[in-house]
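Inverse folding, one chain.
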């Protein structure tokens, strides 16, 4: 850019489009993680939550960004967020058709990143579906899903983020438009409407057995061949892991499930 008739010698002028795209996406990731201003010191509720959930990190030196951050727009952490970016980019470079969805969005950060990748690559014909109750997790239905019987996440108000707040978060990044579709309600009610809808990537982050199974049941068949499945809590929540294996086992499927960071996993649909 030339200003006031002066020759522009700034390094930005020489940067390639690919370089600027990468810088933009890394900046969005850092903003989503609140890594720029830094998370405030751990607040009481986060510590209490870790204790009540007997979270393995409760006794470890604390890394607030790893677990229920106070301000950040996502709780999925540096590795899972960067990994998500790479997978969405891969769907574009490999030409895997379909939209994107996260089931269980909390403050919306992972969905905001997926929309940012589409923006960075100038993709205008794919959408990001944002599915959540926007009222927190449901009470376990222990009669139907015994694996959830001990789940107490529904008690945490901190996990209930309204649709209005998630919309505001998208807006803060300049990424709220008609390529973002909000699906408000419990997965068992909203997701069946998407059966067969083509997805390039589905990201499941509903924590519970029921939430994971409902998402797989409604969305898996729509995942394009070569498309990606990401399950956020597979590594730390036994009920989520069991739902994945009950679903895959019921279909006679055994994809190669890869670890991301000890918590999240992913696989590619053949
Ligand atoms: C762990 S948080 C998601 C974190 C988020 N992906 C992020 O990037 O930080 C879990 C979310 O799943 C939602 N949720 C869980 N089970 C659900 C269900 N059966 N129906 C609708 N929403 C559900 C909760 O409301 C909550 O927002």
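Residues assigned per position:
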């Amino acid at each position: 850019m030339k200003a006031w008739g002066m020759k522009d010698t700034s390094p930005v002028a020489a940067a390639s489009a690919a370089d600027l795209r990468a810088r933009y996406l890394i900046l969005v990731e850092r903003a989503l993680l609140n890594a720029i201003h830094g998370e405030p010191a751990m607040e009481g509720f986060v510590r209490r939550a870790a204790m009540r959930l007997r979270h393995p990190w409760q006794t470890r030196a604390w890394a607030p960004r790893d677990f229920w951050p106070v301000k950040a727009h996502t709780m999925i952490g540096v590795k899972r967020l960067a990994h998500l970016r790479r997978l969405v980019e891969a769907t574009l470079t490999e030409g895997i058709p379909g939209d994107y969805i996260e089931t269980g969005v909390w403050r919306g950060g992972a969905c905001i990143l997926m929309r940012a990748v589409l923006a960075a690559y100038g993709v205008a014909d794919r959408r990001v579906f944002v599915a959540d109750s926007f009222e927190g997790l449901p009470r376990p239905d222990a009669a139907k899903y015994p694996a959830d019987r001990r789940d107490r996440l529904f008690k945490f108000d901190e996990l209930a983020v309204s649709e209005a707040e998630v919309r505001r978060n998208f807006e803060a990044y300049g990424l709220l438009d008609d390529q973002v579709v909000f699906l408000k309600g419990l997965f068992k009610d909203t997701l069946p409407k998407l059966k067969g809808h083509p997805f390039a990537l589905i990201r499941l982050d509903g924590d519970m057995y029921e939430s994971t199974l409902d998402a797989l049941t409604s969305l898996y068949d729509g995942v394009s061949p070569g498309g990606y499945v990401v399950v956020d809590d597979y590594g730390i929540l036994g009920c989520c892991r069991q739902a994945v294996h009950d679903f895959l086992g019921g279909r006679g499927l055994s994809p190669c499930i890869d670890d991301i960071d000890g918590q999240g996993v992913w696989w590619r649909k053949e």
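The beta strands are 99-103, 128-132, 180-184, 199-204, 223-231, 258-259, 265-268. The radius of gyration is 19 Å.
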